[in-house]
Amino acid sequence: MFKKFLNITPLFFILVCVRMYSQPVTGDELSAEKIFEKVDNSVVVVLAYDNLGNVFQGSGVVINNDGMIVTNYHVCKDAGKIEIKHYSKDIKNVRVYKYDEVKDILILKTDEENFTPIACGNSSNLKAGQRVYAVGSPEGYENSISEGIISGFRTDENNVKLVQMTCPITDGSSGGAVLNAKGELIGLSVSGQHDGSLYFAVPINDVFTLLGVDNTIAEVTDPVKYYEIGTIANENKNYKEAEINFTRYLEKFSNDVSAYYNRGYARFKLKEYKKAISDFSTVLETNGTSESFFYRGNCYYSLKDYKSAYTDYTKALEQEPDNYDIYYNRGYAGFKLKDYTGAVSDWKRAIELNPEYTAELDVKIKIAEEESAKTNHTK
Predict the structure, then answer these.
(1) How far apart are CA 35 and CA 39, in angstroms?
(2) Helix 358-378 crosses helix 324-336 at what angle (to 10 degrees)?
(3) Which domain holds residue 254?
(4) Under a CB-based contact definition with an 8 Å cutoff, are residues 263 and 7 in contact?
(5) Interval 273-302: pLDDT, tens
(6) What is the CB neighbour count within 10 angstroms for residue 189?
(7) What is the pTM of this model?
(8) Mind giving me the DSSP string for 91-115?
(9) Inside any domain, residue 115
(10) Is residue 34 part of a domain?
(11) Rounded distance, CA 277 to CA 293, Å?
(12) CATH of the domain at 56
């Protein structure tokens, strides 16, 4: 039911080349436990059904908030139907978006938006001896993690470059995530043989090339650029990437309220409501904008704190008394608080300001009026 404002205009606007799907991450390396926790909601099972009824199983990795999943081409090459599975969740509406048969890359598209996009690294920076992890579903054992190192870099018979590693993978692992020690995706498991511990991965930069994204630029050295990367990530609905980049920016520019607002917006979209409330509250300490009251109200509503939501919507309306979206949302908060008369008043005002709400809210108004009559009758 939520309506939204546009983001606050950035304080800095710098034209830079950016990576749409990847985000630079600094800091200490993570334990295997933390890495698995970080990517568990980003790695899925891919089921490919051929026209004879046979099913082939591989793995896939979620790379953005728009339901885009990358796997190996060979997993689905004979498929008449493709499905995605993640624990108890089954997704039937899966379609092919792009593929490169030679490099063994397939991009799938679904309507599912509740996965967590994985953080992506840069495979051009990999070095032999570097620790890596593989997460996939070998032999159907969903989301198993293995550990190893990069053994080297090879070229196959098709002149395709591959990353050689010691992370054990087997049938069902194809298309799974290969991660660096920060939990960033640096490749896709593709093939291997247990004799000699020879296992291979497709470099993640080849995936970006297929998507038409430049992933070869140097890591960000100017902290100001994190703001621009975060802004573009928000615009492209890559909210996890936006959150990470605004966090990196705020480590240097901790007084920039617009960065807190935009990170709060990303966290709201990621359903990290308590963190988003903290960000919007920081903005409101110095800049009581209607947008921040509005989105903080949305967070409170999502947490079922309808009283706080109603208070914030009211404060937003003090600044924008003709904003129909705020009346729309406050009407819902009032209804939840059993203030049926107030809900009816807000929804009628929303319709007056925006007649497009008429069909939806006329039904809600009727329900609220009936509830109000029941309440008055029992008094």
Answers:
(1) 6
(2) 30
(3) 220-286
(4) no
(5) 999 999 999 999 988 789 999 999 999 999
(6) 32
(7) 0.55
(8) E--EEEEEEETTTTEEEEEES---S
(9) no
(10) no
(11) 10
(12) 2.40.10.10
